[in-house]
Amino acid sequence: MQTEHAEHTLSWKEWLHSARVYLQPRPITLLFLGFSAGLPLMLVFSTLSYWLREAGIDRGTITYFSWVALAYAFKWVWSPIIDRLPIPLLSAWLGRRRSWMLTAQLLIALCLLGLADSDPQQNLELMAWFALAVAFCSATQDIAIDAYRIESAEPRIQAAMAATYMLGYRLAMILATTGALLIAAWHDPGADSYSRESWQMAYWAMAALMSVGIVTTLCAPEPVPDGAAAEQKRQEIEAFMEQRQHLPHALARLLGWFYVAAYCPFADFISRYGKPALLILALIGSYRIADVVMGIIANVFYVDMGFTKIEVAEITKLFGTLMTIVGSLVGGLLVYRFGVMRILFIGAVLAAATNLLFSALALTGHSVGFLIVTVSLDNFSAGIATAAFIAYLSSLTSISYTATQYALFSSVMLLMPKFLAGFSGDAVNLMGYPLFFAGTAVLGLPVLILVWLAARHAPVQAEATHK
What is the pLDDT of residues 124-136, one digit of tens each? Predict the structure, then answer.
């Protein structure tokens, strides 16, 4: 009995010791950078869909409008530029990673101001262009932050950094959803009627909050460049130029730069994994399909079900996001203790299963209590799955091509789910909410097979556990 008690006590001491990883400087820095990354996404996704629906825009147009978020799925196209090209003067001052982060953050704030001054009832096209600009600059910021995170610490604490990143990300989502909805509601107390001015005030406030990321970028240290990786890239460029001596020197160097920046990251991934690389890409491309396809229609669903701005803000945004934060912290700790692949599988099961709760809510009708239960379980599960998934993507990335490879992975992650999500409004019009949500749960089932197969080819660091 005493032995069992001692083992139990030791186990809790080990858990507490493991939790200290969240107090290290790098995870704390990623907390604030995660905030900067999470703020703009919801402002062109969830919150914007609520604004558009309240303005009288039809469901189909709103979900097509969500395709501006495909900028996140195509960020691999310009990620080689961010991975290799310095910004004149600014990079000499801040370093390559922080200079790109700061530039993107300033542009996001300016584009949010433009979005705030748009009116969907008068010029929906102009609003779409501003939303696309926000998404493009936000995706650029993501590329730089992901490279910064991966280059800043060893793989052992990447899951903890991913968890604090998600904590900051979700806190920003609270403000970008709950905060924006509450500001809009407070500025227009007769909240049943549409008021452009109330949304304008909300988006002005969100633009001001980008200062959190700007200040963090200015204060955080630049990661120390990997000398071996830099030397490898230099040698690859020189080898490329030697084979093309018939070309002008400047042109050969430019082509060599593109070869190393754009081609080599993809070739490196394929050479490291061989045929299983296709399996891994299939898993990445489908892992989040259940929650992304469901998520784009969620705010429209809440409006159609008769939930008020206050109810949506307090339950689905504030409380729901807090549950996601708890889930991400739990997920980061579980990954740190037990490895990525087990938690990745559990997260996939939960992500698909919790969508069935939305089908039940659609059949139940306006029920605040049922909404709380549904949102709690759905968001907690999403937090666990996301923390494990970010750690998995990080484990696949070579330190020589951090920005480009991670951008490729995160782009593949979003491409198919975001594309399919654009049709969700028409799907709901055709089959209704209960059957639609059940269908999104079914979409998540093949992911379980892919996780099981990919676990056989998991990187060493992905499966390592803390002893």
Answer: 888 889 999 999 9
